[in-house]
Design brief:
Length: 100
């Protein structure tokens, strides 16, 4: 976890997200008896859902609302969700999902 060769020592970006929020999330679901594969899919699904909601919020902020402009909303959310899965590393997906 600790890398003394960078600067005066650092924690790599891959391990930061595992401590929080992923560590407590998986610990709680393990204590509730959830299988690891279910916990993983719930985590990734919630990140993708958050990314789509962020796009909806962004489009509403830009003023794209109403029944006449429904077309840019859902395809934009779907595109954002699909582009978010390209990395497949959920720790790196957290800021990407929160970007909008």
């Amino acid at each position: 976890m600790w890398d003394p060769h960078v600067g005066m020592g650092t924690v790599t970006h891959q391990t930061i997200g595992y401590a929080f929020p992923m560590g407590p999330y998986y610990w709680i679901l393990e204590k509730l008896g959830s299988p690891a594969w279910v916990s993983q899919r719930l985590w990734l699904g919630s990140l993708l859902f958050a990314a789509a909601l962020g796009v909806l919020f962004l489009l509403r902020t830009f003023g794209l609302r109403g029944p006449g402009v429904w077309w840019p909303r859902w395809p934009s959310c779907a595109r954002r969700t699909c582009s978010t899965t390209a990395a497949r590393i959920s720790v790196l997906l957290m800021p990407w999902a929160a970007l909008p």
